[in-house]
Amino acid sequence: MSDAAEPAITAEDLEAEEEEVRSTIAAELNNRGRRAMEEVDILVAAVLRELPAYLRDTPAKEALHMLSSRKDHAQKESYLQTRSAELEKLELAIRSMSQNLEPMPCEQKSALLSKLSADCNELCRPDAGHH
């Protein structure tokens, strides 16, 4: 066996090794961060290519507002279509009732008029069906 003593590791050696490990880890983290940012840029570019040109060239805040306005417009249009259909039904009920009003008994006429009046009031309320 050899009696040669192993060289002692000094604090300076440990500090140098620590600095080298820290430097290696920092470089690896920077590389990974750079690659991740490149991947995000590629994905964003791919998504932007799918958008219509007018949205692609619009600042994000304005584009989001435009999309929100379209949704509001679609909701209002749907509401108006529903209300229009309800009014058409009411109009048909009034026409039908007016054609058959003469031969009806008074109680039936009164009940029908009350129902139509209530339906009309409900449909003509400014906030009816709009939540």
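(ticket continues) Second input and output from the same batch:
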Amino acid sequence: MMVSVPTRKGCYISILNMIQGEVDPTQVHKSLQRIREKKVANFIPWGPASIQVALSKKSPYVKTAHRVSGLLMANHTSIQFLFRSVLKSYERLRKRGAFLDQYRKEEKVFGDSLQEFDNARDVVT
């Protein structure tokens, strides 16, 4: 699953940048050096600044209007805000007992209790 979260607060854990099209690898290398030197991206203090770049040629089968296209995927500590939001929603639903009927019918899996949900909640917090 991919999600979007604000990255102003927090740190990057790792970045993967995929670039497709006519790109000079030396320009990419210089850009990465500038990012590291100017500390444009804030990385975790306990590990190396992991920026991976994958360059590929343009597909002969897909016509695009642009010379270069790219995709950035990143692991960021701001995902914690999304987890908190999901956890709050879960707690509200669990307090009301909403949507639990189908799980209670599955006695083979859950037995008499829904303890697995509580265990999963404890893992996330």
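Agent notes: The chain has a mean pLDDT of 86. The first helix runs from residue 25 to 38. Closing as not reproducible unless the customer responds.
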